[in-house]
Amino acid sequence: MDSTFVRSLYSSLDPNIALFENAGGTQVPDIVMAQAADFYGKLNVQPGYPYQKSMDCLQVLNEAHDAAGRFIGVQTSGRIVLGPSATALNRMMAVALLERFKPGDEIIVTVSDHEANVSPWMYLKRYGIEVKIWNIDPGTFELEVKNLKELITPRTVLVAFPHISNVLGTVNDIVALTSIVHDAGALAYVDGVASVPHVYVDVESTGVDFYVYSLYKTFGPHMAALYVRRELLQSLEGANHFFLNDMIPKKFELGTPNLEGCAAVLGVEEYFSIIQKHEFGNGKGKNNPFPVVMKAVKEYEKGLTARLLEGLAESDRIRIIGFSKDQQPERRVPVVSFTVEGIQPRDAAEKLAERGIAVGCGHFYAYRLVDFLGLMEKGGVLRASLVHYNTLEEADRFLQALFSILD
Q1: Could you tell me if 66 and 215 lie in one domain?
Q2: What pLDDT is attached to residue 285?
Q3: Strand partners, 107
Q4: 51 and 175 share a domain?
């Protein structure tokens, strides 16, 4: 990928600051901001009434659902629910699914997930649902299949797990895991928040029942999108007003949608189209830019990941969290958590900030994982999370700055 061209599409990128906390939220391309501003100037009305502005607003709303679906390979309308956050969508869906569950039924969650895909299921314990925790292997940092099979029983109704942990940065085989879950007669609820910025997901081909991701972590507005298998979406009781229960996805979208955000979602697709045209011209991907551009993103980010891992491994004082030498490179994304011997994560982050490097520190809402690893009392971890507008030069600057605070 032409990183210089990509960076030219962002007025928010400061060459003096290496933004390495993108897993918490990415920067927004100028075209995305322009789409939101344009909406306010032209279409800021309630959608669906029989006058032109209102009908045009409804078209933006409908097209935003489809664009959010295409980002994860969904080519058919009526599969995507939009909401304010993954946390809110997951909690709402947990309550909706409760009508299918009985006291004594079991849900499995993982210790490696963001709390957004844990606490909504823990909430159901008050209704007699048992919740089991699927731990990672402390030696490999992996979600082991054998451990999942040990947890599953005939009462298992749902397994919630991440595509990629936002701390470990390892890609889980969601196809294989979903197959095991379905063989047990349970539903697979996948957290894609940390994966969609880095890998293309043809979600319908994976067989998952639910797949959630955050649009504000994929170069868009502060919104989230949830894919729900069509039969489930039709059969579940809606959370909205009773007279909307036969309207998909409106029955799960409470109140007036974030309409300017929907316009911004269309800007995300246009952003990918701009990159597609620059990289491939009128060739592959011109009708749907997401698959081909995300393939290029994945290839480009391999270099970023390798540079980070190789550089961090040079110091005996640095411990990379979630990395083993046996791990295949394609199972990593440039989200790398680590600790530094003798320096608290927040102190290290402050020193890096003084040197123009912006990294995060703490538990990143994966509290249970950081606690499981025994790192909460040490202040959690440092995390360098890069995306495709970051560069190898920035990675080198980061490593140089990090090693300077070790002296």
Answers
A1: yes
A2: 67
A3: 131, 158
A4: yes
